[in-house]
Design a protein that fits this description.
The structure holds two protein chains of two kinds. By secondary structure, chain A is α/β, with parallel strands linked by helices. Chain A has 20 helices and ten strands. Chain A has a five-stranded mixed β-sheet, with helices on both faces. A five-stranded mixed β-sheet of chain A has the order 6-7-8-5-9. In chain A, strand 6 and strand 7 form a beta hairpin. The termini of chain A are far apart. Chain B contains 13 helices and four strands. In chain B, the strands form two sheets. In chain B, strands 1-2 form a two-stranded antiparallel ribbon. In chain B, strands 3-4 form a two-stranded antiparallel sheet. In chain B, a hairpin with a 7-residue loop joins strand 3 and strand 4. In chain B, helix 4 crosses helix 12 and helix 12 runs antiparallel to helix 13. The longest helix of chain B has 35 residues. Classes of the chains: A alpha/beta, B mainly alpha.
């Protein structure tokens, strides 16, 4: 062979080898029993640490199962990334699913039903918080997901600011009027006429907004999944939220965009006295404690009706129905959601509350310096918390249509009637169209 | 094949089959044939990549545009339903409007600014290569990285732009926080990022203008503006034509700037067509509709480019007579 042909041959060989290496299967598995499962999750670095600890504990108990951690960082784009992997036939064996993501997956037959495995192992469903369990389909005889942590949406407040304003700390059962009065008293103007301290600051999206609706006995959708925004209770709640901004107790959307910060940043820099959120706030308000030296407290949302619920949020672990190792996946899921060890580890960051009632009662999940009263405050809200009105097309109906009109309403471009009527009209039309496609 | 004759492209017929025309080998010696073989061999990885990553997906997306696909279940054929739905989709029409507005902001400004820099930096002064590199740098920098910096620059309270305005006594502007200015701000970033690329193209075009023409003009007493409009620009038309077409194509495809700076907001004011396509594909489980939208964009761009060729093609001076 002459030089040119030799060179060409080796070049091709190299390229071919690179291709083979790139496409090779990672599962080298020695013996027949050694199984490797891939576990995809989102989260900040602390979350990654916790996952590593839990996997370590799991692998110690199950030496023949290896869990490969796959950290896909941003929670926001996690769904799109998983979707692409599923479409490519390369879904992870286990992955995170937020409460609003389960139904879209279930409707499209993505998930593995864990119920057979749960029944075989004799899982005691009463050990879990009931609202969380219902949200994963247990009522209908299915278990589409293993909850990993859950939280009711609550109101977090700065105790020092309340002290300065001479106000008593809020108690469960406080009303919308109590809340507004507190917000008013906690709003302080600066010398240049701009607000130095806001009484309240909260996102206007569904996470912080729905509890205002639920606590007023309103509902976003009816049992058939049709939107019911055009109702007196919903209108009252939304007008209440807008009122806080109009009266200056909370920053307006333009104001927030101008500052290019979020409510949490305002809270941590002591420019807002109350912010809404899930349990994850206990982790994210650390700067308030560490840098500002202030104390925070938690209380349920203000309510206009006794026993009105707040929203329940949770993250769960799901598996695709075509996973190659369903038994091993079940072992991991069972360990994560049903064993006290894993639940204690998971709750240690302050990002979420354990899903097992007993572990929650023991209170080891409280962060350093947190008072014990918080256990009951959270626990009681759990018992009445309301499942979110999940829908297979949540992103289109809620993030796009509902948010599109409410954003205009909160900015003052359209009236409340226009907003809610259009939401119902457009969303229900889309639901109809999607049902018939 | 096409050849140039009298400043126009015409078609001339060549004998033989397509294959022999691609690799005419009659009357060539063995060495030549081997060279040609290696030519194609080295081309093949590239051709393969273009085929696998571009041609096949494009054809597949045409098929997808006729289906309903949520990325999880199999695509379901629905004919032209996606295209029919498009015209009732208020957010599609709005995103087209935003995209057109965006093109209006970016194309003339972009071309004029890059022309300015090309003319300015077409001199043999000391350090001109450094200046050219500086103007070109935004092109290669990652949009994701610079978006953070631009968000700070645009920040209403502490941003650089408003600080500068404040210096002149102008009240602050909500660059990316108000509906009025958000699209303009994204346009500013897009122009900033692409000026260098267009400048390089125009510089190359400028170098192709024969120097003796300027000498002759100077002797005849022509001023700078005359030289610009009577010599430079007419002879720059091929590059300008190219830059215009690329700018139009680019402005329709803006996505990363919107995604990083404003996420389509505030209030949908920066929801351009590619952002809407992305939302439909990856957030609404509606890949078929997204594919259909992409093909409509293709249709529009194809028409615009064709129009450009028809209307301005004959004014483009390819050769110096």
């Amino acid at each position: 062979m002459n030089k040119k042909v030799k060179f060409g041959f080796f070049l091709l060989l190299t390229i071919a080898l690179v291709f083979v290496a790139a496409c090779s299967d990672n599962n080298t598995g020695g013996t027949e029993e050694q199984v490797e499962i891939r576990y995809a999750f989102w989260g900040i670095p602390e979350e990654v640490e916790v996952q590593e600890k839990i996997v370590e504990a799991f692998e110690a108990e199950h030496p023949h199962i290896k869990v490969q951690l796959d950290h896909i960082s941003a929670a926001g784009e996690f769904g799109a990334s998983i979707l692409t992997q599923i479409a490519g036939g390369n879904a992870p064996d286990v992955f995170y699913a937020g409460e609003v993501q389960i139904d879209p997956y279930v409707q499209r037959d993505v998930l593995l039903d864990l119920m057979p495995y749960a029944e075989e192992d004799g899982i005691d469903f009463d050990a879990f918080f009931q609202p969380t369990l219902q949200a994963v389909g247990v009522e209908d005889g299915h278990m589409w997901a293993m909850p990993k942590d859950n939280t009711p949406v609550m109101m977090y407040y700065n105790k020092n600011m309340f002290d300065h304003a001479g106000l008593d700390y809020p108690e469960p059962g406080w009303t919308f009027a109590d809340f507004e009065n507190a917000a008013k008293a906690l709003t302080i103007s600066g010398d240049n006429g701009r607000t130095k301290q806001y009484g309240y600051s909260g996102d206007l999206g569904w996470v912080a907004m729905y509890p205002f609706i639920f606590k007023n006995n309103g509902d976003v959708m009816d049992d058939d999944g049709n939107f019911t925004m055009n109702s007196p209770e919903v209108i009252e709640s939304l007008e209440f939220m807008k009122g806080l901004m109009d009266k200056g107790y909370a920053p307006t959307p333009e104001g927030m965009a101008d500052m290019d910060v979020g409510p949490l940043d305002l809270f941590n820099s002591e420019r807002a006295a109350m912010v809404p959120g899930g349990r994850w706030m206990a982790f994210f308000v650390k700067p308030l404690v560490e840098e500002m030296g202030s104390e925070w407290g938690v209380v349920p949302y203000p309510t206009n009706a006794p026993d009105a619920p707040t929203s329940l949020h949770f993250v769960s672990l799901v598996a695709p129905h075509n996973t190659e190792h369903p038994k091993e996946v079940w072992e991991f899921l069972k360990f994560y959601g049903y064993s006290k060890e894993a639940q204690k580890l998971n709750g240690s960051t302050g990002l979420g509350i354990p899903v097992l009632k007993e572990v929650t009662e023991e209170g080891e999940w409280l962060v350093e310096g947190e008072p014990e009263e918080h256990i009951d405050i959270y626990y009681n809200e759990f018992l009445t918390a309301k499942e979110l009105p999940v829908n297979a097309d949540w992103a289109l109906l809620v993030d796009d249509i509902q948010w599109g009109y409410l954003d205009q309403y909160f900015r003052g471009s359209i009236s409340i009637e226009e907003a809610v009527q259009n939401i119902d009209k457009d969303a229900n039309a889309e639901i109809e169209r999607l049902r018939n496609r | 094949m096409f050849i140039m004759e009298n400043n126009k492209m015409i078609k001339k017929k060549q004998p033989g089959t397509l294959f022999s025309r691609l690799a005419p080998t009659n009357g060539m010696n063995r060495q030549k044939r081997t060279e040609i073989f290696y030519g194609y061999l080295f081309l093949s990885p590239n051709v393969l990549a273009v085929f696998v990553f571009m041609v096949i997906p494009i054809i597949y997306s045409l098929y997808l545009s006729l289906t309903q696909w949520d990325l999880i279940t199999d695509p379901r054929f629905i004919g032209l339903d996606n295209f029919a739905h498009m015209f009732q989709d208020s957010r599609f029409l709005m995103s087209m409007k935003n995209t057109f507005l965006f093109s209006l902001y970016t194309i003339p400004t972009g071309i004029i600014i890059s022309l300015f820099f090309a003319l300015l930096l077409n001199q043999a002064i000391k350090g001109v290569n450094l200046y050219q590199a500086i103007v070109f740098m935004p092109v290669i920098v990652s949009m994701v990285a610079v978006a953070m910096v631009w968000r700070w620059i645009f920040n209403t309270e502490v941003g650089l732009l408003n600080l500068a305005l404040d210096f002149f006594g102008i009240s602050p502007v909500g660059w990316i926080s108000t509906e009025k200015w958000a699209l303009v701000s994204v346009a500013i970033v897009a122009v900033w990022k692409s000026v260098g690329f267009n400048m390089v193209i125009l510089l190359a075009g400028l170098k192709g203008v024969p120097g003796h023409l300027y000498e002759a003009a100077r002797i005849d007493g022509a001023g700078t503006l005359s030289k610009l409009f009577k010599i430079t620009l007419p002879l720059l038309t091929p590059s300008l034509f190219f830059v215009t077409i690329m700018s139009i194509l680019g402005s329709f495809q803006v996505f990363d700037a919107v995604f990083m700076l404003t996420s389509g907001g505030p209030g949908n004011s920066t929801n351009v067509i590619y952002y809407w396509i992305y939302r439909n594909a990856f957030h609404f489980f509606n890949m078929g509709y997204a594919a259909a939208l992409s093909w409509i964009v293709f249709g529009i761009l194809f028409t615009l480019t064709l129009l450009q060729f028809k209307l301005f093609g004959k004014n483009v001076n390819y050769e110096l007579d």
